[in-house]
Amino acid sequence: MNNEWENDVNWKVHTDNKKVYIMRDHNWAFAAWELAKLDERIKGQSLVVHVDAHLDDVPDGVLVKNLLEAKTESEILSLSKGHDYTTGSLSSESYLMRIDNFIWASLARKTIEEVIYVSRYRDDIFKLEELREEETQLSKLIRSKLPINFNYKHQRFREIDDFLHAFDQDSFSKKSVTDLLS
């Protein structure tokens, strides 16, 4: 079995129709969402269902250099390429896209607006209200980078069964699931 993904932080694949993406490091989810928006396969202010051991909701994703200016596929891919921390070296560049801050990067670009988290992770979701209340230099900087009328809706389930019971069969359209798989 070929396990090239184990040694390559930039490893990613997608189906031919680009409706399903699989990546080793989650910062590439940002690229998948942004390219789908660029290609008009999704609209802005979309919903993401994030099922993971961690929340990946670090708000400094809004500080990624050139985040809001990126308009082309190559610019988006360049933004998405994080630093390979497995080398043991630290990056000299601040505010890179990482495996834990990509959700807020897409929130800042208004590609997504709502996130349903399914995670047993011990921490709570980082809330916009907390960011507004904090008076640290970093919080002020993050707030200054958020778009006007920034909106972030979220919901949290600690167990997959709780998530599945919260939504009935009609909550997600059968057409969208069929489209995803075709």
Explain this structure.
Mean pLDDT is 84; it is low at 174-182. The strands form two sheets. A three-stranded parallel sheet has the order 3-4-5. 31% of the residues lie in helices and 13% in strands. By secondary structure, the protein is of the alpha/beta class. The longest helix is centred in the N-terminal third of the chain and has 12 residues, at 27-38. Helix 1 packs parallel to helix 3. InterPro entries: UPF0489.
Total beta strand runs? 5
SS class: alpha/beta
- Percent in strands: 5-15%
Strand order in the largest sheet: 3-4-5
User: Helicity range of the residues?
Assistant: 25-40%
Poorly predicted regions: 174-182
Q: What value does the Rg take, in angstroms?
A: 17 Å
User: What is the first-to-last residue Cα distance?
Assistant: 27 Å
How many helices in DSSP terms?
Answer: 7
Sum up the overall morphology in one term. Answer: globular
Mean pLDDT comes to: 84
Number of domains: 1
**Oligomeric state of this protein:** single chain
InterPro entries: UPF0489
Pfam families: UPF0489 (PF12640)
